[in-house]
Design a protein that fits this description.
161 residues; mainly beta; Jelly Rolls; seven-stranded mixed beta sheet; six-stranded antiparallel beta sheet; 13 strands; 53% strand
């Protein structure tokens, strides 16, 4: 099993934006195993909308490349690398420009900001799989600016299949 993490830490969100984006490489499909989104900038209770999206054509430009980590020492290096340009086989965080590509919502939701979001598929019907060489980006998108802008963290645990 080739399991990895893509994440970004401690960034500010001042507007609606893609928090983390991930594109499958040409030679491996990606299965999303877990998504976490949280913040430490406020202790005030409030709700935040979130969408998991696939975006095609003109893709976001990210302010930071995400860190790719291995969950076990025996796994080889991931085929995904951190980058800001949404190229195939890359992941980035905290979009600086959204791009004009069509966003297709594959999971809409909301979460309480003090508790954060934890999403884990509970059945095969809920799995999100990005085919090898897919031109679309999987993104965690906030359709509205959060009430607390600081200290946000995003994490995706994924498997290369």
């Amino acid at each position: 099993m080739r399991v990895y993490t893509a994440f970004g830490e401690n960034f500010s969100i001042l507007a609606a934006k893609t928090i983390l984006g991930l594109r499958a490489p040409a030679d491996a499909a990606i299965r999303i195993l877990r998504v976490e989104l949280n913040q430490s900038g406020t202790t005030t209770v409030g709700m935040q909308r979130v969408e998991f999206v696939k975006q095609a054509a003109t893709l976001p430009t990210f302010a930071s490349s995400s860190v790719i980590g291995k969950l076990t020492d025996t796994d080889p290096t991931s085929k995904i690398s951190g980058n800001t340009n949404s190229a195939a086989g890359t992941s980035g965080t905290n979009a600086s420009a959204e791009g004009g590509g069509t966003r297709t919502v594959i999971w809409p939701g909301a979460f309480e900001v003090v508790r954060g979001l934890l999403w884990v598929p509970t059945s095969a019907k809920e799995e999100i799989i990005l085919p090898a060489g897919d031109a679309s980006l999987f993104g965690i998108y906030l359709p509205a600016a959060p009430t607390s802008s600081g200290n946000w963290n995003a994490l995706v645990v994924f498997e290369e299949i």
